[in-house]
Every structure is written in structure tokens, then in C-alpha cells.
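User: Could you go from structure to sequence for me? I need the amino acid at each position, not a summary. C-alpha cells:
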């Protein structure tokens, strides 16, 4: 299964829509959102436009967390995990959080096939023992060029997609 990994949109809805379109064109059947979407209106756009399963964690810029939870609870294809998540998808155990320090701790634990994070805005791919550690970069293009990633559960690999 191909899974889109998006982070750090920072309300750049034009880039968000472009990333969602590309993710669908690449055959992604699920999306993990790694935090810092920022405003509820941008989250609303995400959950309306992406109709496949969507798993979300908070970043450090979502202020009205209660509204995000309420929005997610009303939609059967959206699961909001709070600050971090550990999920089984296909045959893989995956951890994701917005924060690199939490991701590094999870990757070093050896429990996970793949660990994903955001926050730094910088694309990163590293193998720690058997665990793939990835930051997909920032969709927003605020600090660096806009990008996201596609994770493939079949071979535990990742591809970066530039917007």
C-alpha cells in the first residue's frame, strides 16, 4: 500500500491541494498527517478533499485542539490521534509524531518498521537498524522547497515528491 506523508502545511492551501492531487495520482490509499496544518479551516479542506483513510497528529501550531478533535470525530475516514500515534497498516507497525525527538526515541526502540515526523521542515531519510526514519519535508514551502513523501508498505521504502 502507498501512503502519503504530509507535514507542515502552515495554511498554504494551494500547496496542500497540489500535494493531495499528486498523492492520489501516485496511487496513495491512505494519508498520515504529521502536524502543523495550523487553522481549522485548512484542516476542514484536508478532510473534505481527501476521502481515503486519514490519520492525523497535532503539531505545535494547532491552537484550538478541541475543534480539531470534534471535526475528526464526525468523519468516519479520519482518525485524530492527538500528539502521537502507533498504528498497524498492512504488515507494518508505524509510529508518527510531529516531533523529531519523539520519533528518534521510537526509531531507536527497534519496535517499529517505520517512524515519521515533521517539525524541522527538512526532508530526511535514515535507517536505524531495521527502522525507517523519515521527515517528508514541508508542504507549505515556508522555509524550504515544498515537498511530501510516499511510503510503500510493501518494501518499507519512501519516495520524496517535490511540489
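Assistant: Here is the amino acid at each position, in order:
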Amino acid at each position: 500500500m502507498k501512503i502519503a506523508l504530509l507535514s507542515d502545511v502552515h495554511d498554504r492551501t494551494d500547496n496542500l491541494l497540489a500535494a493531495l492531487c499528486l498523492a492520489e495520482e501516485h496511487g496513495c490509499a491512505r494519508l498520515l498527517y504529521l502536524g502543523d496544518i495550523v487553522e481549522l479551516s485548512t484542516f476542514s479542506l484536508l478532510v473534505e478533499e481527501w476521502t481515503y483513510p486519514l490519520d492525523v497528529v497535532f503539531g505545535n501550531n494547532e491552537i484550538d485542539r478541541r475543534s480539531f478533535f470534534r471535526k475528526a470525530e464526525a468523519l468516519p475516514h479520519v482518525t485524530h490521534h492527538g500528539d502521537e500515534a502507533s498504528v498497524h497498516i498492512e504488515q507494518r507497525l508505524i509510529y508518527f509524531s510531529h516531533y523529531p525527538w519523539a520519533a528518534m526515541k521510537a526509531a531507536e526502540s527497534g519496535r517499529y518498521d517505520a517512524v515519521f515526523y515533521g517539525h524541522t521542515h527538512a526532508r530526511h531519510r535514515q535507517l536505524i537498524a531495521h527502522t525507517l526514519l523519515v521527515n517528508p519535508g514541508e508542504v507549505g514551502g515556508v522555509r524550504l522547497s515544498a515537498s511530501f513523501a510516499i511510503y510503500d508498505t510493501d518494501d518499507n521504502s519512501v519516495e520524496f515528491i517535490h511540489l
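One structural detail worth keeping in mind: The mean pLDDT is 97.
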